[in-house]
Amino acid sequence: MIEMHDIWKTYADGTHALRGLSVRVNPSEFVYVVGPSGAGKSTFMKLIYREERPTKGSIFVNGFNLEKLKQRKIPYLRRNIGVVFQDFRLLPKLTIYENIAFAMEVIEAPKKIIKKRTLEVLELVNLKDKVNSLPTQLSGGEQQRIAIARAIVNNPSVIIADEPTGNLDPDTSWDIMKLMEEINFRGTTIIMATHNKEIVNTMRKRVLAIEHGHIVRDEIRGDYGYED
Q1: Which residues constitute the domain of residue 185?
Q2: Structural contact between residues 22 and 7, judged by C-beta atoms closer than 8 angstroms
């Protein structure tokens, strides 16, 4: 599913975000990415969907060699990757239905398929009754559910989630994690960066700990491993 070999990432200001990182993620895995702020977690995530490029090393995602991937092929890579952000990133002037449907419109899916699939994912995230609402009319938890629905509407093989519960209260965070676990149970690989110690320690998935650009721990049923 995802392979990185000897990945280095140095930014223009000289910051070394990743230093010789190598890792493999298999299909249908659920992986937490943990570590202190500034450790390289976000860079690691962005490399997977080609928002950033490594300074050195090779990356393979869903059969794509990202080192050799031409610019015009990037949309094909991203069709199989759903991304969920901490700040939701919903389009404020579009309804909930339109926000989700837009993800299918950009890949020119047929209108009939767009409607069917959009309503399916709204049902999965239990927000079919909000179909005509605007994002500002929803709670933070509901907005994150819509962001997840948008991320999965094209049936991606992998979801990248960067602090998806970071702006949510504890009860809502658990609702989001139950939804993520259900999506993973259906076969989607999930890679999630988080600082939520309780979630990681309770759910016991694979844990990748990154510090100073290195993977310092890779455990199959790991714990968070850091103090609050």
Answers
A1: 29-53+78-219
A2: yes
In a domain, 7, yes or no: no
- Write down the pTM of the prediction: 0.92
Q: Summarize pLDDT for 88-138 with one digit per residue, the tens.
A: 889 999 999 999 999 999 888 899 999 999 999 999 999 999 999 999 999
Looking at the domain assignment, is residue 207 inside a domain? yes
Domain tally, the chain: 1
Question: b/e per residue, 61-88, with b = 16+ CB within 10 A?
Answer: bbebebeebeeeeeeebbbbbbbbbbeb
Residue 194 in any domain: the answer is yes
CATH assignment at residue 204: 3.40.50.300
Strands, sheet with 206-211, edge to edge from the N-terminal-most edge strand: 81-85, 158-162, 189-193, 30-34, 206-211, 214-219
pLDDT in tens, 157-216: 999 999 999 888 999 999 999 999 999 999 999 999 999 999 999 999 999 999 999 999
Q: Is residue 2 part of a domain?
A: no
